[in-house]
Amino acid sequence: MTIEVRRARGNVRDFLDVVDTVYADDPNFVRPLDFDLRDRLDRRKNPFFEHGDAAFFTAHRKGRCVGRISASIDRGHLRRYHDRTGFFGFFDTIDDEEVSSALMSHAESWLRAQGMTESRGPISLGINEEVGCLVDGFDAPPYVLMPHHRPYQAGHIERRGYAKTKDVLAWRYTVDELPPRVKRAHAEISALPEVTSRTVDYKSMERDVATIMDVFNDGWSDNWSFVPLTQQEVRKMAQDFKLILIPEITRITSIDGEPAAVAVALPNLNELVGDLDGKLLPLGFAKLLWRLKVERPRTARVVILGIRKRFQHVRKYAGLSSYLYAELSVSGRALGMRGGELGWTLEDNGLINAGIRAMGAKPYKRYRIFSRRIS
Questions:
Q1: Is pTM beyond 0.90 here?
Q2: CATH fold match for the domains 4-168 and 176-337
Q3: Which residue ranges make up each domain of the chain?
């Protein structure tokens, strides 16, 4: 049966709405808010397009949209790794390999036209957005800014000739009494006179977010596929944080006045928007504000935790990560939060994963990143 693949240029309605078909009977799917995704696809609004490019495709059968995909290049990645690798993302299709193959073929053709020799994904535009195809953990809804897939989708990718490049993990954490080891680490760091810690300040959001990302970029610069955010992306992050951030579950920790370690947890918006079907109008925005500010979410996701490199291997600061986890956990508990998600983390990042396990968290979702030579 003929599959028509269309490139979405100005009108992205099919690209947004096709998820209602793909996940029609999936109780764990949470549709992202349309206004947010539309802005991310908009070259005028998303600072990614200052250093990247992308194309968006939808697949149609008998006039009905049955799948979508993006193809993207990130010049920041290319300058850093010199590997001529592009990405595919937003990969959501019905269980039909004719559909998925047609979409991936168009994405690969676009990447080749940009001079790429390898296709990697799913990665939504760049590494600092959603990454991976869910391969384990289908029985729970995704947290904010994390992807969700059907169990068949990884198989479609593999049968297209892709192989695993890397797995990333999401960790489930229940807010409870801190483990003894974490309590000791928290007490030891708290007792150091040169260590101070504070929350993000709404009045200086842009400055604080810039500080957070400076520490994070330094601490994670050797991480696999890492690409630092640009100044414009940091400014955009600060604008977004003003809408949703809960300062109590953020930390900027300094040593002798120098920002040395940072942590940010975001309220789990997916907990609040599941019944909005991606729409904020006519009443969705008021509902979201009420739920965010009055009802308060009961879960959060730790999206940033970083320690400046020069402090990472100093013996007396070895407990900094546990200190940050403990600070967020205690503050979250005071807000009435029941738990949350930590990650994502690379499956082979033993040091980070050991620290998360020490907090009592357990991996409950696994996402796979695939690659394939396309030339």
A1: yes
A2: yes
A3: 4-168, 176-337
The closest alpha carbon to 110, from 5, 207, 2, 244, belongs to: 5
The listed CATH number (3.40.1080.10, 3.40.50.2300, 3.40.630.30, 3.10.180.10) that belongs to domain 4-168: 3.40.630.30
Token digits of residue 175? 């807010």
pLDDT in tens, the chain (375 residues): 699 999 998 889 999 999 999 999 999 999 988 888 999 999 999 999 999 999 999 999 999 999 999 999 999 999 999 999 999 999 999 999 999 999 999 999 999 999 999 999 999 999 999 999 999 999 999 999 999 999 999 999 999 999 999 999 999 999 999 999 999 999 999 999 999 999 999 999 999 999 999 999 999 999 999 999 999 999 999 999 988 899 999 999 999 999 999 999 999 988 877 665 665 544 445 566 656 666 678 999 999 999 999 999 999 999 999 999 999 999 999 999 999 999 999 999 998 999 999 999 999 999 999 999 999
Q: Is 6 exposed, middle or buried (0-12, 13-18, 19+ CB in 10 A)?
A: middle
Write the CATH number of the domain with boundaries 176-337: 3.40.630
In this structure, what token pair is assigned to residue 14? 């099919």
**Maximum alpha-carbon separation in the chain:** 71
